[in-house]
Amino acid sequence: MTLSTFEARQVAWQMIQAALAAVDPAAAVKNYFNNQLELVSQIKSTPGRIIVVGAGKASAPMAAAVAEIFDNKIAAGLVIVKYGYTTTPSTLHPPPSALRIVEAGHPVPDEAGLRAAQEIARLLRDATEEDTVLCLISGGGSALLTLPAEPLTLADLQATTEALLAAGVTINGVNTIRKHLSAVNGGQLARLAAPATVYALILSDVVGDPLEVIASGPTVPDPTTFADAWAIIEQFQLQAALPAAVVERLQAGRAGMLPDTPKPGDPLFERVHNVIIGNNRLAAAAAVKAAAAAGFAGQVLTTFMEGEAREVGRVAAALAKGLARDESSLTRPACLVMGGETTVTLRGRGKGGRNQEMALAAALALAGWPNLLITCFGTDGSDGPTDAAGAFADGQTVARAQAAGLAPVEYLSHNDAYNFFAALDDLIITGPTNTNVNDLTFILAW
């Protein structure tokens, strides 16, 4: 097959669209309940109330789907989404007035999120044994559902989140610490809702789908401890970067002076049902199917992609070169798909995100290699604090940059991938997708 780089990008766009469609939050909610009609009937006929709560970048369409299914049976509810993520599919009716959608800050929590979390806590404290709580959880829920454990303040959590992200702590590590500074994460939302029956519908944005990690596991037993949280602080030498109140709480918890989060085996989870309704694996498989429709032999290489973004970018470039030299069992045109989530250690004051940084590192490694394309993007439509989902990189990226007077190595050293790719018109701009199942990387060779 003879393709131009432009045509290969068109294939990549088709793969992006297919991946996002496969993890559409509203469709995922409907699919779950369509396969659980007896459960729907049971919930609708309960003598108690239906209360809907949730948090995450995908919570608005999830809430709209739940509202369509349970209609006027919903007595009260509130879900928290990232700013700009309130749009719901045009095929769905907006939630009833009893169910509110509130926008808040992400990845650093803000006052709007705090007030909304306080309201959710009030709703759940009033729940009775006859009530049913539908909890809608998706990526971003950790920051959006922010309720500091007393006497911590929002400012304490904001400073802690910023320090953890700047140090390159993995999302699992960040969430371990968040759970031990929170009054709702790490199974504590389920504790607030008891004795009501809870059904948590979860769209996973975490590698491997560990329930206790997704959105910091608000409805899931927490296997991590204060000691685990403090070990991360020591590993990254963050003691001096954290607020004194945070350090005091973690040290007091490690010494057994504070109760830990609820653990596996706690009776409060007997009435809690956690279900994953969408994940990275589904999105990756849909991307491979779209590639096949375009004539590419495809394979999901892994959905456990982790590590420093620039290092993973070099690995992606190495895999692309292997395809180009027919070192794979796939016959060109061929496509490898990787899913997961990398991290970035900040070294400069540039603008970007993990997918853009990964793409820039890949571009440097691919320089001069023809007929190769690497596509790195976040399924939520936002990559770091930017309006881009990611970027494209190919064998001519570096040459085009140099011709435009850009120095790719300098942009990478300053974590400034956004401005680099913006100058080349190589950013991937999707806008908010209202879903979130981690990142995807496509490696195309033809």
Number of strands: 12
Order of strands across the widest beta sheet?
A: 3-2-1-4-5-6
Number of domains: 2
Which structural class fits the helix and strand makeup?
alpha/beta
Sequence of secondary-structure elements: HHHEHEEHEHHHHEHHEHEHEHEEHHHEE
For the terminal residues, how far apart are their CA atoms?
Answer: 7 Å
**Named CATH topology of the largest domain:** Rossmann fold
Counting DSSP H or I runs of 4 or more residues, the number of helices is 17
How confident is the prediction overall: mean pLDDT?
94
Looking at the overall shape, the CATH architecture of the largest domain is 3-Layer(aba) Sandwich
Net shape: globular
Helix fraction bin: 40-55%
Fold and architecture overview:
40% of the residues lie in helices and 17% in strands. With 446 residues, the chain is α/β, with parallel strands linked by helices. It folds into 2 domains: 5-16 and 281-445, MOFRL domain (glycerate kinase, domain 1); 24-147 and 182-224 and 261-278, Rossmann fold. The strands form 2 sheets. Strands 3-2-1-4-5-6 form a 6-stranded parallel beta sheet, with helices on both faces. The longest helix is centred in the first third of the chain and has 18 residues, at 5-22. It is globular and about 65 Å long. It starts with a helix and ends with a strand.
Helix/strand layout:
Layout lengths: L4 H18 L2 H10 L2 H8 L5 E6 L3 H12 L3 E9 L16 E6 L6 H15 L6 E6 L3 H4 L9 H13 L4 H9 L8 H6 L3 E7 L22 H10 L8 H11 L17 E7 L1 H14 L3 E9 L3 H16 L9 E7 L13 H13 L5 E7 L11 E5 L2 H7 L4 H6 L3 H8 L2 E2 L10 E7 L1
Parallel strand pairs: 1-2, 1-4, 2-3, 4-5, 5-6, 7-8
Antiparallel strand pairs: 8-12, 9-10, 9-12, 10-11
